[in-house]
Amino acid sequence: MGRAPCCDKANVKKGPWSPEEDSKLKEYIEKHGTGGNWIALPQKAGLKRCGKSCRLRWLNYLRPNIKHGEFSDEEDRIICNLFANIGSRWSIIAAQLPGRTDNDIKNYWNTKLKKKLMGLVPPISQRKIPLPFPNSSHEIPTSTTYNQPLLSSSSSLYRSFSSGLEHQMSNIILSSTYPNPTTGTTTTSLNFQTQMQEKYLVGGTSTTTTTNNPIQYNYIPVKDNNILVFGSDQGRSCSSSSDGSCNQISYVGGCRELKQEEQIMGFRHHHQGYNINMANFNGFEEQMMINYENHHNLWGEKSNGYFGESSLEKYCGLGDENDHFKQLISSSSNSNNPSIINSYDSNNNYGYGNIDENKTQDKVMYF
DNA sequence: AACCGATTCAACCGCAGTAAC
DNA sequence: TGTTACTGCGGTTGAATCGGT
Q1: Under DSSP, is residue A365 helix (H, G, I), strand (E, B) or coil?
Q2: Residue A19: which domain range?
Q3: Segment A133-163, tens digit of pLDDT
Q4: Do A73 and A113 fall into the same domain?
Q5: Do A74 and A115 reside in the same domain of the chain?
Q6: Which residues touch strand B (CB under 7 A)?
Q7: Is there a contact between A318 and A81 (Cβ–Cβ < 8 Å)?
Q8: Residue A25 lies in a domain
Q9: Could you give the number of structural domains in chain A?
Q10: pTM exceeds 0.85 for this model
């Protein structure tokens, strides 16, 4: 047997708190404290509320020194900095802003600050290379089947597939169908990797099956202006050198949508310093970035640990004073190290590549 | 004044880690 | 040691409010 039930869930009030309830809770806690037991508190305080609800009400609204109202520019900056470093870990962010609650900051971010930042970067359609297929517009397909892949053999998605990672890509590619001109039927038996290799593998792999039989590739549409990202940031697939830094990034990895704010903020990476990411937009090839060739003399040695410069960095002026954020993270039971990694080259494109620590000038691969 | 879509934000929900039994 | 509650967190919801027509 475990513990007894915390409360009679059928007999607790829900919804907005009345002033009477507020004063009951406030009075009780000011007099007796929480006693470290929120579950027992409502009954003792004469409230028909769940302990969880009481806790939330107290922490977010009733406790002393809660700051309501407009956020200052300084608070904006701190939130931006922290979000760029640690993401949506609101409780940690709130701990740096006396009087602000995690809920407050979360709401503020979602309703105002994010939008404010969104306006500072060009929309995807203005910052990427022209789409190669199926046309040069940037239509967002709602449900799409194409008779040819949207990827070329140089795309990172293709590389991932040719590495046998199609199973990790299932959230991009729903299925592939394979019409048979002889029988007139369409099958889905051929796995995607095989199809990709047969049709696109550079270097002469047989294409006899696919040359005359167009494959249909079905893609999941990507929401709004999000892009798909895959690679090391997803798959945690870096190899590490003895100092814990990441010296090689492979294509191995999962895939997910990259939210707009993440595009603004840059990705975070679990290793120090370096990060390589690859992205794809609605199945179309998308520019990838990281001009790693300078990672040592330009990015890797930045004292704030950031990699490259993001739009956020430009906006918020991230600087060396952010070192303590790293300590924050490392002390919060998370091995991820913060770094801002995405950036544009002089042509406003993203790039990527493997990092070779022995070289500062090496191949830079662009999509 | 009435309507309606957009925005705000307090509160709820569900999950994960931890603690109690 | 297994089961179940507790706690804290982040994501989401929806009623209230705002603002434009």
Answers
A1: strand
A2: 9-64
A3: 222 233 333 333 333 333 444 444 444 333 3
A4: yes
A5: yes
A6: A 1-3, 13-17, 52-53, 56-57, 60-61, 68, 103-104, 106-108, 110-112
A7: yes
A8: yes
A9: 2
A10: no
